[in-house]
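Much of what follows relies on a compact textual record of a protein's fold. The record below shows the convention in full:
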Amino acid sequence: RGGGAGSLGAVAGSDGVAVFKVSQPAVPLMILSHSSSSTTTAALTFQNMATSKSSLLLASARGSGILVWDVSGHSLSPLQGRLDDDDSGDEANYTSMAWTQSSWLAATTATNACLWDLRQARPTLKFGKTAAPSPIVQIACSNRDECGLIDTSGNVRVFDIRMTDSRLGSRGQFRAYKHAGVGLSYLQSSLCWLTWGMDDPDSDAFVKLWAGGVSGEEGNEGRLDNSLDASTTDNNAKFSKSPASSPGTDFRLAGQCSSRNLACARVCPAPIEDSFVTIGLMNPPNDWRADLWKFRGPNVERLVTLRGSHDRERLAVGGYDPRLLSLRA
């Protein structure tokens, strides 16, 4: 996270979380110890540089607890004790995290989401609780005080976190995929939710971009029932009309792309705008592929492809300066 020579990265392993300068990845600046638990780390997330002032925070979710460190000061001690949710229960392990525009930390378990003001050890707000058989797999936050949740069935729900009651304000919901939802992010410069998942169990995953705030005839092109019951939806390109309490927040499919054996997608941080990277595995299994994409709605254009493996790396450039990648951040 960050830019230039001071860019930092983090990777979790069995011995803890290693924080390093991207310019010197083989030499960790520090090793942060989470706990003696054998549970693997589920998520790592740096605070958004646009919202942090004098410090750079790194949150790590492991099992049913979260720790937050100020890595800008190279402190090995977390800011405070372990963050957890009193009501989650022993089996409620955290699955994903994200920072809000207001520097609150958001996290999910399989059944609900929480928001923390870091001055408190207990969640400030809870939302998104579901009794559905489809667990929540990821949370993402927009720059418009929204949090989105995607579940394993491909359903996405968006909440207005400026509301202070325990249920928050629903901004809408839509069915992103027919078969499975895998991940969710937010393309800040384009004001689009970015999802990846599968419409068919035998197909590769797709990345889709969803724009909100559409009304009128254009919005009528794709609306689905407010219900998230998969049996009522037979076309993933049709979305849900927002609840009556939040008019004008319908969602529409703004663009999509696919890549062989897609594993995940990551939005490029500032100053790279309207861009994201997809990562996929290749044959043999040790090979990988990374594609840099530019969203020029409704077109999604592949700019650069990187291919590599455990013993070789090669760069394929299609008429673009490789420095555009700026993958250090």
In short: The two ends are 5 Å apart (CA to CA). Residues 213-248, 312-329 have pLDDT under 50 and may be disordered.
